[in-house]
Amino acid sequence: MDPNAALHRLRTLMGSPHTLDANEAAEVFEGLDQWLTNGGFLPTDWNATQAGDRAKLDGVITSAKMAIINDVLADEFNPYEMRGFSDLNDHVDANMYLEALADDFYAANQAIKAITEWIDTDGLLAAVALVVPVSRMEGWRKESQA
User: Fold this and answer.
1) Could you count the other beta carbons within 10 Å of the beta carbon of residue 117?
2) Residues 119 and 60 in one domain
3) CA–CA gap between residue 26 and residue 6 (Å, rounded)
4) Is 52 exposed, middle or buried (0-12, 13-18, 19+ CB in 10 A)?
5) Does residue 30 lie within any of the structural domains?
6) How far apart are CA 62 and CA 59, in angstroms?
7) Which of 4, 123, 15 is nearest to 61 (CA)?
8) Along the 146 residues of the chain, how does pLDDT read in single tens digits?
9) 89 and 95 Cβ atoms separated by less than 8 Å
């Protein structure tokens, strides 16, 4: 699916109502809707997270990750027990950064998805392991298995 081509085709179809093929328009729209629903990127004309906005998004993601790491280092959370979006909600500081994207639903979803994937693919564990002693990591691991 090329969302740019789909949007261009929809605009072309809608621009000439006398020759509008409603079936084709519906088919293109359904394809684009399915693409976006499954996490595909927006057409360039719709993408609000370009250039400067992308830097803002990256900054929010980095700040939220750092807030989560700080919570772990303060012994507020066991990094071995944290999984996904539901646990992300427990991080007040991380959510404070995410609120900066509240006016941009697409960017907020991108940030939440990136952070959740980072947690679920053990990115959090790897980051924490860089700054804490092995004995502390081992203690958290044993605690999570109890």
Assistant:
1) 11
2) yes
3) 11
4) exposed
5) yes
6) 5
7) 123
8) 888 899 888 888 877 666 677 788 888 888 988 888 888 888 877 765 555 677 778 888 888 888 888 888 888 888 888 876 667 777 778 888 888 787 777 788 888 888 888 888 888 889 988 888 899 999 999 998 87
9) yes
Do 19 and 58 sit in the same domain of this protein? no
- Residue 101 makes CB contacts below 8 A (sequence gap 6+) with 56, 57, 60, 107, 108, 111
Range of the domain at 25: 3-37
**Amino acid at the residue 84:** G
Looking at the structure, do residues 137 and 87 belong to the same domain, yes or no?
yes
> Are residues 106 and 60 part of one domain?
yes
